């Protein structure tokens, strides 16, 4: 029941001292939370950076391996090309030497290079010219040499010379050559 | 809920200010929940508020935000009427310019809004939470008697009287009487006024007086000697409140005014006499014969007042000492629940 002519003033538990205290603690807690949030963010950022760097390192490792493989492949290709080039040079020299071996009296009509041999077809005025001027050098180069002749109508002879190099013997010779080079 | 939690944490401080003639009594009570932890009282030589009083109040209210400052209404235009009907209130006071509260749906006490504003303004330095009417304090102080008796109840303060007439909880009449505007001239003029009024009534009835002889019933007055034999008359003379007399005797240690008390008590008696005369004559009030007077004495009246009332007005008078500050404090506590 109301007895008083007036209603009491509103009473608040928040006194000016408490207000000051709350403001002080409020600011302190806010600063602590802000610092905590900043540290959390920095920690997250650092973790993310670490993960990114890990991933980058992993990717770089992979690309490094790929590059190593590529280098090995290229080196092999280079070696192969060098060996092909060398072989071709050798072959070219051999062919040039071979054609140098053919005397002017003999005319070649066909030359076939085999993997381990050489087949020459041509015409010679006689067997002696062939035997002394072509057969002899061929025998010094190849291990086995077979010749067959067919007479022509003009008196000349058509010849077919088949020459082989035995691979085992060739390997032995190459090894000896390598050893000498070393 | 949070407010209630904080309210329980803090002390409650009740500051109660009673204004006297030239001084103010400040009673402070510190409570925790229902318990009274401490109390203090100081008297200051001011009727409003001075620096000492302000410092005294601040020394307690600074301890808690839950403090309540109560003052007793000192307005001269305050009063109480026996109805809560707004239409009836207008015949007793100016409703628009007054603040009024209906008590228990039985009677209304009121005061001037301007006086309330002035009172609030005079305590602006500390603020005021509650302004209580002396009538509510009086009815609360004598609640045990009001419910059971038809009597006059008077609250005596240093500079004023608050007078009520209750008949079994029903308010018949109430008046706030100030002693400041009172002088012996007023007493004389008041008495003269009464005489004139009486003469007027006598004049009006003079024309009818001859007819009175014709009334047969008047013959019964010849048997007036038989009145002594009526038992009810004996009961009337014994209609005393024994309980109140016992408590009155136990309160004799309360210091009574001796030197100035006589003049002031006579003034008080005249004020009461005038007010009761007005009550009997004013047709707005429901009339009732008053046999008993209960006086709540906050200043220490002399035995003269009791004697005047008993001898001049034939009232069985009981004086009970009241500590206004603690009573005010109790009402303030009840107000906040």
Give an overview in words.
The complex is a heterodimer of chains A (182) and B (337). Chain A is an alpha+beta fold. Chain A is 64% helix and 17% strand. Chain A folds into 2 domains: 24-101; 105-181, Gyrase A, domain 2. Chain A is built from 3 helices and 4 strands; from the N terminus they run H-E-E-H-E-E-H. Chain A is rod-shaped, with a radius of gyration of 49 Å. Chain A starts with 15 loop residues before the first helix and ends with a helix. Chain B is 39% helix and 26% strand. Chain B has a 5-stranded mixed beta sheet with strand order 3-2-1-4-8, sandwiched between helices. Chain B starts with a helix and ends with a helix. The chains are: A alpha+beta (182), B alpha/beta (337). The interface between A and B is medium-sized, with 13 and 31 residues.
Provide tags for this entry.
heterodimer, A: 182 residues, alpha+beta, Gyrase A, domain 2, 2 domains, four-stranded antiparallel sheet, 3 helices, rod-shaped, B: 337 residues, alpha/beta, five-stranded mixed sheet, 13 helices, 13 strands, 39% helix
Topology (SSEs and partners):
The complex is a heterodimer of chains A (182) and B (337).
Chain A: H1 16-101, E1 107-113, E2 117-124, H2 127-141, E3 144-151, E4 157-164, H3 167-181
Antiparallel strand pairs in A: 1-2, 2-4, 3-4
Chain B: H1 2-9, E1 12-19, E2 24-32, E3 35-44, H2 51-61, E4 67-72, E5 79-81, H3 86-89, E6 98-103, E7 107-112, H4 113-122, E8 130-132, H5 134-141, H6 143-146, E9 150-156, E10 160-167, E11 170-178, H7 184-206, H8 209-212, H9 231-237, H10 242-250, H11 261-281, E12 292-297, H12 303-312, E13 316-321, H13 324-336
Parallel strand pairs in B: 1-4, 4-8, 9-12, 12-13
Antiparallel strand pairs in B: 1-2, 2-3, 5-7, 6-7, 9-10, 10-11
Helix pairs in contact in B: 7-11, 11-12
